[in-house]
Protein: AarF/ABC1/UbiB kinase family protein
Organism: Thermoleptolyngbya sichuanensis A183
Amino acid sequence: MLNRGESSLHSALEPMPTAETSATVRPDAVLARPLSIEDHLKSAYDSSEMPAVRYDPMAIAEYYSARPLQVMGRMIGIVLPFLLLALGLWWDKQLGQIEKNQQRRAEQLRDILTQLGPAYIKIGQALSTRPDLVPPAYLEELTRLQDQLPPFPNEVAFQFIEEELGDRPENIYAELSPEPIAAASLGQVYKGKLKTGEVVAVKVQRPGLAERITLDLYILRRAAQWAASTFKQIRSDLVGIMDEFGARIFEEMDYTQEGRNAERFAQLYGAIPDIYVPRIYWEYTHQRVLTMEWINGTKLTKPQELAAQGIDAAYLVEVGVQCSLRQLLEHGFFHADPHPGNLLATPDGKLAYLDFGMMSQVQAPQRYGLIEAVVHMVNRDFEGLAKDYVKLEFLTPDTDLTPIIPALAAVFSNALGSSVAELNFKSITDQLSQVMYDYPFRVPAYYALIIRSLVTLEGIAINVDPNFKVLSKAYPYIAKRLLTDPSPELRSSLKDLLFKDGSFRWNRLENLLKNAKDSPDYDLNYAVDQALNFLFSERGEFIREYLVEEIVKGIDGYGQMTMQRLTATLRDRIGLGNGSAPPPADSQNLENLSRILNILRDTPGFDPMQLLPVVPNLLLRPETQRMGQQIAGGLAQRAAARFIREFLLPEEPPQPNSSASGRLNRNGKVLSSTMGGNGSGNLALPARRSA
């Protein structure tokens, strides 16, 4: 008979019942409960559609709060090995034998993490990707946690296959390796062959997994609650972070969910060049057994083996970065556990993703917020960056940003001292940690998995190329999104980037175009379509006004330059001396436009013939016609002003203190006139030049 805690845990953590499954619920489908409960509940389950499991920390807490001795025993089992390791390291230091005993201590750490189980193994896996943080001896040992853990007996694995798939393995598969090929934190993998001939990987879940994970999650969550309430300096949502981790690891224990994740990942990212996602065989997949396409490949952390195969590891890392950017910033569905065991280089030079158990989601406001934050950081707009932290829920809306803005400026001005290409995520997070400690920042739960994913990926990249900088590879994608994404959030970011105090920053546009053309999927024609749609929308009115002003200045400047050159040529021919004159300042915009056109010509896929059909449509737009009228009016005003200055105004010294209408300022320019122009009642006139 179950006590209250067991009943609560069972009911809260079992799969959600459906019409087909509410009558009989298979007990081993209930992932999060102690084995004693499993022993009490043995029944049949015949449905092929497995309901999703859910993580309920309240039910787990209710169950284990009634078992303090079990919890205390586990806590001692966790703390004691680490204390012994720390004592050993201290003793090595006293004897001057740290280097001599480093390999032994590294093996000791790996053994501790292995014995403690999945939650701690995943911590070790994350550290195994950081050669910039972990000494080589420790790195080598921690790398073994990716797929070289001790396996569990074949008899248990084959029993699970029979229970899940309804028959003995030899009756289901044409071949199955006698021993597991790899063993990871949650399961082990056999190589097999279906009777239809396909070579497959068969993953079988570890026994007793639910009991250890739920107890560890309970202890870690209690520790997070204690730390958050005891240390007021900690403002991160530690409990939320633990709940996010718990929810993800529960999904990882459901192999049917992993199969659905794999298919969704393939649908969203499988079309990216050189990305490969293995196929799931649903007929041979259930909650504790997953059958998927077998992938022959080499880890990215073995660059010498890859080089021997003629595979460019650095290129595949860049492919992984581009895929991760689309996961985090485009669709939001991302692989939260990209350690080297889950990323393989295939013999034909593709990057294959494996193990889709731990996935997470970034919502649209957070995706746009992350892009805006990068733009504001690059733009050194630290006030905008502080507001981004509010949008991203690091700061509450009522937070006083006044002291935070200069603190961010101090951090990022130093970090951006050379260029964006020199930044890496670790340097940013390290420099931000003090600011987040000093001010009321609160790290949201979703952010922890994002950072884990990015830092892990960067660790793999550093292992391949110590000088690899993720941001330098990421900015082309950011530039492409800014130029092509029609969302109001990114249109606003583009405006902030290109305009400052009413003036257009040509160098920023040049930089965006140069970076965007390096993005693998940048479509210039699509970018032009998006730019035109925005230009002629209500939100693009400010750009149309600016373009009218710049076109008027450019045409007028070009006309003046042409007349000056013609006059200079005539004066030289008739012997009146040197008629050379510097070009007008407004000709600078023509040079800017020339550089922009050169960048466009160098962009892959640029074809001016594809732009020709756009011209008639542009000319027929009412906004274009209004712009034409405004340009003609502006040129007429300038011509009239020049005529008045050259022929009608008398030459007289400037009178800076005069307030009369039509007077000149001390630079020789007319302050105002009552002639009226464009209905404004004022017309600015350039001063007449001395002959």
